[in-house]
Amino acid sequence: MNSVKIEETHVVDHPLLRERVAKGKRPGTKEFVAFIDGVEAGLLIFEHFPNYSLGIVYEIYVLREFREQGVGNLLLARAEAVALDSECKTLRLMARSLDQKVTNDETLASWYSRKGFDRDVSDPGWMQKGLASASTRGG
Question: pTM higher than 0.85 for the full model?
Answer without folding.
Answer: yes
